[in-house]
Structures are given as structure tokens and as C-alpha cells.
Amino acid sequence: MRLILLGAPGSGKGTQAQKIQSEFGVCHISTGELIRQNIKDKTKVGVMAESIINKGDLVPDNIVIEMVKNILSDEKVKDNFVLDGFPRTVAQAEALDNITKIDKVILIDTDTQETKERMLKRKICPLCQKTFSDTLVCPNCNVTLIKRDDDNEQTIDERFMVYEKQTKPLVEYYLKNKLLYKVDGNKDIEQVFKDIKCILNEGKV
Ligand SMILES: [Zn+2]
Q1: Tens digit of each residue's pLDDT (9 = 90 or more) over 163-192
Q2: Considering the domain 2-111+160-201 in this protein, what is its CATH number?
Q3: Which of 56, 71, 104, 163 has the fewest Cβ atoms within 10 angstroms?
Q4: Is cis: bond before 126, omega within 30 of 0?
């Protein structure tokens, strides 16, 4: 299956993508991870991305698209992936359409106010990097949780503004192409995953 996961900041998109990978054996392609891997492997686009990041700029569309194109040309990946963090814009979605055919797009739909409040409360474990919002000590490592630098009200508001502006038109785009499926992301992680599984098993005998 060739999937895209869409969702606002804090929607648990990455977590669900991991779960889809474990359950269905598809390759989880996270844009952040993809960029890091290219930099580590010193690919042509990785070297370009590194110098851009070092200047403090965002990696531009054409470079990210090239990285996606490269990984999707892999025999093992090309018909068996879930994209997380890409596409982010309609322009990227159009570029992706020229690379491959997408089967389903799943939108994890969340309540903005509730998610913002949860993100403000959340803390991260300095050891295992897991996030929690209902405890002060990591239950796995038994160390005090810390606040993430980017989890303050202003940066959270900014991330939501960028999402509204760039990603919302994507939802319209995939709705128009009849590829969009919605799940209620306000439910707990396991329930959201159950709903996603239903969508993915649909149409298969
Ligand atoms: Zn921990």
C-alpha cells in the first residue's frame, strides 16, 4: 500500500505511522528522518541540505522531493510505504503525483484547542525521548521529565498557523482526488489505530 498520513501538530501522526509500519510491514518514511539519513550518507542532496540547514534555512521543496523520489525508486519501498511529513503543500503533492500513485490519504483529525493545551502540558524524557503529559517522572527510566524548548505557547501557535495555511489546502486536494479518509484523532492512541486499520483493511478480501 502507498499511504500518506496527514495531521496537525500534536495529532500523533508519527506514532500512528510507526504502528502502521509494525502491523503492515510498510516502510515508514518520515521527512525529518529522510533528511537526516541523506546528510549522514552524504548523498548529493544530503550535502546540499546540510549546507542550507547550517545557514539556518529550511530545506527547499526541490531537495526534499528529490530525496522522496530516490527512496521511492527502491524496489522494496516503492509500493509499500507510509509518508509522514510529506507532502506538506499542494505543490509537493503535485510533484508526488508525478513520482508515484497514492492509494489512500488518512487525515488524523484533531480539535485544535485541545491539542494545543495537551502540547503545552507535555514533557519529554531526556533519556528515552518519549513524551508524556500526565506525569513528572518517566515511568521507563525513572528520571525527571523536561520541557521541550519548542513547546511554548508562541511556537505552538506558529506551528498551527503554518499548518492551517499550508496543509489545509492539501486536505481539499486529496478530497477532490477521492483519496481522503478521516479518523477522529481526539480518541486515545489505540482507538485511533483501530480506526486506521479499518480503513486500510477496507477493500481487501
Ligand atoms: Zn524515559
Answers
A1: 889 888 999 999 999 999 999 999 999 999
A2: 3.40.50.300
A3: 56
A4: no
Out of 69, 78, 118, 122, the active site residue is: 122
Number of other CB atoms surrounding residue 202 within 10 Å: 9
User: Domain residues of the chain, as ranges?
Assistant: 2-111+160-201
CA distance 131 to 126: 10
Cell of 77: 519501498
Please write the tens of the pLDDT for every residue from 8-35: 988 989 899 999 999 999 999 999 899 9
Q: Tell me the one-letter amino acid at 34.
A: L
Residues measured by CB to lie within 5 Å of ligand 1, the ion: 125, 127-128, 138, 140-141
pLDDT single digits (tens) 74-94: 999 999 999 998 999 999 999
C-alpha cell at 16: 500512528
pLDDT at 64 over 70: yes
Q: Are 98 and 87 in contact (CB under 8 A)?
A: no
Residue 25, phi-psi category: left (phi > 0), alpha (psi -120 to 50), beta (remainder)? left
122 flagged as catalytic: yes
Q: Where are the beta strands (DSSP E) in 80-179?
A: 81-84, 104-109, 123-124, 131-132
- 137 CA from centroid of ligand 1 (Å): 8
